[in-house]
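Lab notebook, bench 4. The sequencing result for the construct came back, and we need a structural model before the next group meeting so we can plan mutations. Quick request posted to the team channel:

Model the 3D structure of this chain.
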Amino acid sequence: MHAYRSHTCAALNTSNVGETVRLSGWVHRVRDHGGVLFIDLRDHYGITQVLADSDSAAFGEIEKVRSEWVVQIDGRVKQRDAALVNPKLPTGEIEVYATGLTVLGEAAELPMPVFGDVDYPEETRLTYRFLDLRREKLHKNMMLRSNVVRHLRNAMWDQGFNEFQTPIITASSPEGARDFLVPSRLHPGKFYALPQAPQQFKQLIMVAGFDRYFQIAPCFRDEDPRADRSPTDFYQLDVEMSFVQQEDVFAAVQPVIQGLFQHFRPEMNVPTDWPLIAYRDSLLWYGSDKPDLRNPIKMQIVTEHFRGSGFAVFAKLLEQDGTEVRAIPAPKGGSRKFCDRMNAFAQKEGLPGMGYIFWREAEDGSGMEAAGPLAKNIGPERTEAIRLQLGLGLGDAAFFLGGKPDAFQSFAGKARNEIGRELGLAETDSFRFAWIVDFPMYEKTDDGKIDFSHNPFSMPQGGLAALQGDPLSVYAYQYDLACNGYELISGGIRNHKPEIMYKAFELAGYPNSEVDKRFGGMVKAFKYGAPPHGGCAMGIDRAVMLLADEANIREVIMFPMNQRAEDLLMGAPSEPMNEQLRELRLRVVPKD
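Done. Here's the predicted structure in token form:
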């Protein structure tokens, strides 16, 4: 017999009854049923129930074991009585009568239990992540992640893509976040950077003549943490294709993502119709560039109904340039109680409240009437025009926000989601995908300068000619894939012409010399025959988070950082030794 096991803890069934077996694993829990001891023995594969009574030679040893000890058990497979079968376990029809036990590894007193679903403080969970990962839910999540990566690899190969690896130590590149810098020992005073993404390398692979590339790529960004984002590193499915337009990338990627979500969540609805929504429309309709389309509510501009109206707050506001009023329809939200609840939500978010109108039966029995302070101020003619525009009726409501869109549309998106959730309008059994397209190439920074709004390597729509006018009116061949309120994919058709690239960076304040210095390798390559190319990248951590139905990305990462970008298990970041600093010719400046 094998030194440690003849079977795993998920392998035994009634066909093994009467066999002598050897199992090894962790003691999931011990139960004493008055002279009969039970151990739930757990390994990577599952759980098997082991029992011993006073006649068993292993009884005395089993009395000593505690939770999470690693043990080896010899015994005989027995069939359970029909009344004691556990249908939730693959091994639930059998048990192993122990004849011998060997302790392979004792466990100290546990800082947190593995058995059960009790939630523990994040600090404890991350400090003892190896224990946390023994818990059933986390173990399942990590296996889901492993299987997702395997599925993606197979799907990409099936789509005619080839997998190539790109460097981990490279040069700094503006990808929208801070770099992690790596000091060079051989070149004192100079630094490498960990790649925020393999962006330049994958484009160079296209220039080198390889047609379809993919990689399960590690990416490193010094970012502030969020529930759906790791503060240090993450993995993405990185994709690039030659001789393609935007639609070709969509056509290549959709079957991979569609198949992934259908395979791992077959009980969910995954519509094949993925709408294309312009960035500006997404902000208007949903208050976000990553809309949750499970919620059917679409916001609308209703400015003209309030211009010069009796509602002085909006009427005065609309005298200023760049202001507007938007409505959030709320089907079946037509009660004062609901409207007050949404007003309280707005106040909790730091706003004075939201204007609202709701439509109810008239008190005099004459039909439907508009109610609420706003309705009284603007009169029946305007409220009826609003109702007709929004397609609302009896028992419905609408909420209103006014000002410059940049100032309120983020809250409007939150309010839309909250209204949809409160009214039960949002689907709960679907993954709703949408391509967000036509992103602006540039944006104005707080200090009034022009900068890239997204990926600086995207091709401007209209090419060089588009860059001769107002930069803020230029759109890029840049696109995102949104799913249920998350950005899942980001990509673009690349700028592969040196003259367009120089001009694009010039508008953002980078002279040609700076472009040559920062992106010399890519600019040089483009001068030697570059094909039109484009691609995208999908966040694997975020995809697994959606598939696992988790709200926090740390639940699907094996060894995540905490909210302060600290590795509590390994003690990172840590102070370097003086010898290391001397070797690198670095000095740490004390914090003020």
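The chain has a mean pLDDT of 94.
Will bring this to the meeting.
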